[in-house]
Amino acid sequence: MWEVLHGGTEPFVWMCMNAVPITICSTNVISTELLESVFGAPSSEDSPSAIIQAVPVSPQPDDPYCIYNDYKYVPSADYDKFDWTLTKRVASSSQENFLISPLGLKLALAILTEAATGTTRTELSSVLSFDNDKKVVRQKFGMILNSLETKSSQYILNLGSRVYVGSTVLPQQRFAAIALESYKTEIKSLDFGNPVNASNAINAWVSNTTEGRITNLVNADDVAGVSALVLNTIFFKGTWQHQFAPNATKPRIFYMSAEANKETPFMKIKDNFFYTESIKFNSKILRMPYMGNKFAMYIIVPNSLTGLSPIFNNLSGLRSELCNLQEYLVDVTLPKFQFEYTSLLDGILKELGIRQAFEDTASFPGLARGQALANRLKISKVLQRSGIEVNELGSTAYSATEISLENKFGEHMMPVAEVVANKPFLFFIQDELTRQLLFTGRVSDPTLFDGALKYN
C-alpha cells in the first residue's frame, strides 16, 4: 500500500473496501474557542434579535473584504451542491447536535468514482454533481487539495489519504497513478488475513494523522474479510483572528426549545466582523476568520427559536446570501462547546441516488486487475466519526471517513451589532480560497458531548 499525508491530521476521512462491502468513516473536532467567538449569551425566545443593531465600519488591512462580494467564480465551488445536500439530510434526521466533514466523504467517493465503471460510476458522478469530463473533475479536485496543502505557521491543516488493498489485490496501474496525481492518495498493501495486525496498522495511521483524537477507528472484526479500504483524514486547528478574552466568559442560558434550557459558559467579544442580516433566511450570518484569513467559520443564527429548520430546508440558497456580507462592529456572545459525532451514512447515500455501488452488480475494476475480483466488490457501509472543540482561542476539528468493500458473496464610539447565539444554530468551516466546506454542523445543546446518526 502507498501512503500520503498532508501537513496535519485533524479532520479524518477513512474508507475501507472489502470483497463485498465498503465502509466509510470520518471524524471531526472543532475547538470551543471558535464557537464562542461567534455566538453570544443566551436569552429567552422573546428576547431581542440575535443581532440587535449593525453599523458598517471600514475594512481592516488584516481582514480583507469578503470574497463573496467580488462575485469571483471559483471552479472548485461547483461541487458544493453535494456538501449542502448531505448537510440537509443529516440535519433532518434529528434535532440534536451534529458534525460532518463533507470534504472527507466527497474525497472518498471521488476516489471510488475513479475506480468505477458503468452505472456504478454514473450514479456516483451524478450525486456528486461531477462534470462529464474526468479531466475537469481531476483539475477541480487538484485546486481544492493544492489549496489545503498550503503550509502556514498561523494554522495547522493536515490532510492524509490512503487506499489499503489486500495482499492478493493488484489495483490497475492507471487508477493508482490518477489517485496519486489528482487526489494525493497513495495505495498501500495490507494483509487483511491477519485482521488484528491490519486494524492496528490502520488505527496507528489514523491516530497519527488526527494527532491522537481518533485512536480506535476500527477493530479486527471490522477488517476481517476486507479486500480494500479507502481512508482519508483531515485535522484542522485554527486560532481566532479576533480572540475572546477568557475572563469575559460567563455562564448564561442556552434555549434548546421553548420548554428546555440549560446554563452553559458563553464567550464574549466586540470587534470587526463580516456580517449580514438575511431576510431570506430570517437570520443573522456572521463570519469569524482564523489567523491568516485562509479559513473561516460562518455562523447562522435564526431570529426565532424555531427558525433553524427552514434554513436547513433551503441550504442551496445560502451561498448567494454570503454575497451580502459587509464589515460591521459586532458584539458577539457565543457558547463554548465540544462534542463528537458518529454517522452511518449508507441510507442517505442510497436515497440520494448511489444505489448500485451497494449491490451485487457494483463495478469497481480500478481497484483490482482482472474482472473476477473486481466484480465481487461493493460498498458495505459508510461511516464517519467527527469531533469539534470551540473555545476562546480558536477551534480544533478532526474527521475520519471509512469506506469498506466486501465480497458480495461473503471598541469604537458608534452603535454596534449584537449577535447572541443562545438558541440552536448552524455553523460551517471552509477554505476561503476554494470555498470548500471542511465541516458543517449544528449546535442544539452546547452541553452535550456525544451524538450519533444511524440511517440505514
TrEMBL record:
<keyword id="KW-0646">Protease inhibitor</keyword>
<keyword id="KW-0722">Serine protease inhibitor</keyword>
<dbReference type="InterPro" id="IPR023796">
    <property type="entry name" value="Serpin_dom"/>
</dbReference>
<dbReference type="InterPro" id="IPR036186">
    <property type="entry name" value="Serpin_sf"/>
</dbReference>
<comment type="similarity">
    <text>Belongs to the serpin family.</text>
</comment>
<dbReference type="Pfam" id="PF00079">
    <property type="entry name" value="Serpin"/>
</dbReference>
<dbReference type="InterPro" id="IPR000215">
    <property type="entry name" value="Serpin_fam"/>
</dbReference>
<dbReference type="GO" id="GO:0004867">
    <property type="term" value="F:serine-type endopeptidase inhibitor activity"/>
</dbReference>
<dbReference type="InterPro" id="IPR023795">
    <property type="entry name" value="Serpin_CS"/>
</dbReference>
<feature type="domain" description="Serpin">
    <location>
        <begin position="84"/>
        <end position="446"/>
    </location>
</feature>
<protein>
    <recommendedName>
        <fullName>Serpin domain-containing protein</fullName>
    </recommendedName>
</protein>
<dbReference type="InterPro" id="IPR042185">
    <property type="entry name" value="Serpin_sf_2"/>
</dbReference>
<dbReference type="InterPro" id="IPR042178">
    <property type="entry name" value="Serpin_sf_1"/>
</dbReference>
<dbReference type="GO" id="GO:0005615">
    <property type="term" value="C:extracellular space"/>
</dbReference>
